[in-house]
Each structure stands twice: as structure tokens, then as C-alpha cells.
Amino acid sequence: MRKIFQYKSEFTNYKTAFTLSEILISILIIGIVAALLIPAIIQKYTYKMTETRLARFYSLINQAISMSIIDNGAPETWDYWISDEYDDEDNLLNQNEATDVAFQKYLAPYLKIIDKREVIDGDGDKRILYYLADGSAFAYVRHQIRDWEFFPHKAEKCIVLKKVDTAGICRFCFEFYPVNVSNMGSDELWKYLLNKGLEPSLHRWDGNLETLFNSERYGCNPGLSGSYCTAIIALNSWKIPDNYPRKIKY
User: Fold this and answer.
1) At 82, phi and psi to the nearest 5?
2) I need a labelling partner for 47 at 20 to 30 A (CA). Which of 12, 33, 87, 250 fits?
3) What sign for the dihedral angle of Cα 248, 126, 84, 177?
4) In the structure, how many helices (H) and strands (E) does the chain have?
């Protein structure tokens, strides 16, 4: 019978392993890399979501306006328009109920609104949020129907904060004012809105790009109202430019 001999080295059963210090160092390195990369990934996702939802909202509302015009005629014939009204102490009245009636008649039939919620905003005023299928929402300002606010994400979290802290960050300003139905100043002040559908807030814009950043009344730079922030993104094909002056977050 043929015998088979096996040679067993002294190293045959030797197994390599990391020391505890090596494992801890590896975990530390992974943690540092994650700490550097994860915020950037989250911010990139946040910006992409904002861009996508802003562009989709702009398209959806303008499609709804176009369909309503087919059924209801030109906007100047609509009994949709609500102007500012004041109480005896010259305070603007909350007109959410009136704006909701107008919205339900002229625009809601052409949109897929999946939810409608009454909330109290950061100024203590009742507002109505209309939710779209992608989780975004929008609302009219409390006192009239011309100005809209769009919330790409977590609308209720954003709307309870003060406007100066949220414009261009989690809240974006639009206007639907195709005809100067209430004679509110010169048509020159509204020229980027007249004869159009829903547009980024551009009341009083002089056509200068720097004004969108630095306008004392509407500019996007920190410390200003932020109303023009939406226009900066819109004019960049609904992409947030590298020089966008606010950090979008939800």
C-alpha cells in the first residue's frame, strides 16, 4: 500500500488578525471620512430635490392656469381676484377663506391636491396649505391671492418660522398677477408678471441681475427679505447657482 505523507508547517495553523488598536484606527478613519462626505451628500440631495420640485410646481400651476382659461375665459374675467382689505384699525384682514373659494373654483379642478391643512404660521396667522403628490405644498399669503409661497419639503415645519428666516431657504415666493385688476400702482412695477401665468416674485424688478441679490426691499442676500431668491434659481434654468447666497435646508 502506498503511503501518503503530509508535511505540516509550523505556520499551518497560524491566523492573521488585526490588533485592537488597528481596528480602532480604522473605525476612526471611516468616521472622519463619513463626517466629511455625508453632509455634502445630504446637501447635494437637498438642492437637487428643491430644483426638481420648484420646476415641477412652476409647470403644474401654469398648466392648470392654461386649462382654466380654456374653460373659464381670460383671467381678467374671473371673479378670482382678491385685493387687500383692512379693519377699522388699518390692519390687513386675513382672507384665507376667500382665497380658498377662488382657488377651488378656478385652479383646484386642474390640479391633484392630495391634502389640505389649516396651520398657524410664524406670525400667528391662519393659513391653508395645499399638498401635492410629491410631498411639496403651497399657500397663499394671508391677506390676498396674488402672492403664493411654495414649500418643496416639510411645509408645516417651515411655515411656523418667521418669513425672514425662511425665504429662499425652505419657502419660495411666486406671484400670479397677469392683469393689474386692482390698479395697484404702475404697470411698470408689474411688467414681469402682466400677461403671464405664475412667475417667480419679480414685483418692482429693474431687470438688473444684481438687484435680485441686493434689492433693499426684496433681495436674496442674507438679512434681506428673500423674495427674489426664487427668480435667481428660475433664471438659471431652475438650477441653484454656485453663487446662491442662502443655504437651503428643511
Assistant:
1) -125, 120
2) 33
3) positive
4) 5, 6
